[in-house]
Amino acid sequence: MKCRIIIPFLFIAFFSLPNQAQSEQKKKTDLANSFPRHMEEFSWQEAWLPSASVDISYNSSGSPVSIERSDSEGLSKQTFYYNNLGQETEIVSQMFVDGQWVNFEKETSSYLDESNPQSFMSYEWTGSDWLLTDGSQYDYTFDGNRISTMTLSSYSPEASWEFVGRYTYEYQVGSSDLVAIVSEVYEEGIWIYTTRTVYEYDGNQISAFFLYSWINAEWELVSKMIYEYVANESMVLTGSSWLDDAWMPSIRMTDNYDSHGNTILSTTEYYGNGWMVLSGQQYELTYSGSNVVQRITKAWSLFNPGQKAVTSIGWKNSKKEVFSDFASLFVPEQPQVVASVKVFPNPAQDQIQIIVQGESSTVSSLNFMDLTGRIRFKQDFLTPRSGVISQALPSSLSTGIYILQVSGSNGAPLAKKLITIIR
Question: Of 320, 335, 352, 420, which residue is most buried, by most CB within 10 angstroms?
Answer without folding.
Answer: 352
